[in-house]
Amino acid sequence: MSPQIALYDPIFRAYFVIVLISLAAGGTILGVLRFVLRKETASMFRTYWSWILMAGIGLVVVFLGRIPTIVGVTVLAIFAFKEFARASGLYRDWWMAGAVYVGIVTVGIASLISHPRGEEPGSGWYGFFVAVPVFAIALILLIPILRNRARGELQRMSLAIVGFIYMGWMFGHLGFLANATNAYGFVCFIIFATAFCDVAAFTFGKTFGRHPLRSEISPNKTWEGALGAFSVAMILPWLLRFSFPFFGPRELVLAGLIVGIGGQLGDLSISVIKRDIGTKDMAATIPGHGGILDRIDSLIYAAPLFMHMAGYYHPLK
Amino acid sequence: MKKWRYDSARDLDQPPIDRLRRFPREPDMLVYGLRSICALIIRGLLRIYNRFEIIGHENLRTNRSLVIVANHCSHLDTLCLLAALPLRKLHRAFPVAASDYFFQRVPRLWAAAVLVNALPFGRHRRTRKSLTICSELLANPGTILIIFPEGTRSTTGEINEFKSGIGALVAGKDVAVVPCFIDGSFRAWPKGKRLPRPRRVRLIIGQPRNYWTRSADKVELTTIANELRDAVIALGEGGTRSPNALLKGIRLRRLT
Hints:
The structure holds two protein chains of two kinds.
Chain A: H1 3-8, H2 10-36, H3 42-64, H4 66-88, H5 94-112, H6 126-147, H7 153-177, H8 183-208, E1 212-214, E2 218-222, H9 223-239, H10 249-277, H11 292-313
Antiparallel strand pairs in A: 1-2
Helix pairs in contact in A: 2-3, 2-8, 3-4, 4-5, 4-7, 5-6, 5-7, 6-7, 7-11, 8-9, 8-10, 8-11, 9-10, 10-11
Chain B: H1 16-21, H2 29-49, E1 53-55, E2 66-70, H3 76-83, E3 93-98, H4 99-102, H5 106-115, E4 119-121, H6 127-139, E5 144-147, H7 165-170, E6 176-183, H8 185-188, E7 202-205, H9 218-239, H10 243-251
Parallel strand pairs in B: 1-7, 2-5, 2-6, 3-4, 3-5
Antiparallel strand pairs in B: 6-7
Helix pairs in contact in B: 2-3
């Protein structure tokens, strides 16, 4: 991955066009809703402007190459964890929060460097990357011992471990995907597909939604929206087959399942956390979307599953 | 199993810009780290570019609440006073900044809130509420308020009249008031210039004073303000000529 390669890479160019078309189509639909059907669309437009901004930043970062992609994912993970820490109160404990930040940065470094012995540079150190949680959790468990404290530490340790594993390590897989030979196909597909399914779930839910999916977790999600997004997710890998020409039907179906089910499970698992804490959004960072964590929640769940599925059938490098 | 108690941040539902405007701000590890690193860089730059030196450093050695009062003719003044504080006290030091100037447009707001840890002060309206926030802060020990009682940067380099609000803040309270004189900041970076120039800047820190026996009536407040102004002026006249103090300042010159 580098700007020179991206410029002539058919997959990246195709995704560039696809993202532009999707944004244009979304804008047209919103325009029709607003000016022809006279519907109330102010909040949807706010969400839409944020989509344009995020798509622009995402395309630029992926275009710039492997290192900017991994650094970008790490920065995003840091801010996602910061939102989680602020919502759960963990941010008051600097030692724990600091340990998690160290862990997240280590994940980024493990994706950037390559194995010290052998292997060509720029391939990521897979063994260390997969082992980072061992060291991070050891560090987190060490902190109460160093500070000679026990009261309330279980809650802090648990929150720190969830925060590191979920927002740091699982999301870090997206950065590690940038090391794959087929990096553009994998990274662009998983980001685009989860985002597309989020929008599909919202649209289907708004249009046909009747039956609540999980009333105790997220009152606004419906079975109709979930099934609509699932069917879209099952079709998407076949439509975007050019991103991974070596995938057979088995892998395409699995990719659809991961995006369709995994993405929505990610959404729901963040909702569980929010519901227990008692907040509606994790933050108000992105206008119309909520926090960073509310935006990337489905990607956090789907990206590692997708990476390991793809890596199992076709070695990443 | 008993329910866990989550201690969420109080500004969770506010967009980032509004979070910067609100005071008191929530503690934020990343912001504190960035602020400390930038403070170190600024200290180094001041030492090299403006040959910055501090005289009377020992007058700031206390763990009680402090009000630092100084003359004001440049943005460098705030940076110089912050550079005189130990790094670990940086996040408890609040330069009192005009909310109509520093807390409106985003780049300046970001610099004021993140880098300098400024306290938004209503110069023209809600002044009384701002003063209440200041005195509440002073009530917990270890708080440092940096105040320029002239209310704005001097355009001539002369020291203007001090506003009586400073009197209202310190009269009848057991807080140390430290008058300071900043020498050379007007030549280095006057109001209206885009960038500072490499002129020598010197900070002279005076003896701490105390106004807790004074009442808070109107005449008395003006007297306190005038007394403080005289103290600052006296530092400017006396401190620059004392070679002994100068030597001490050079010896105590430390970055952190």
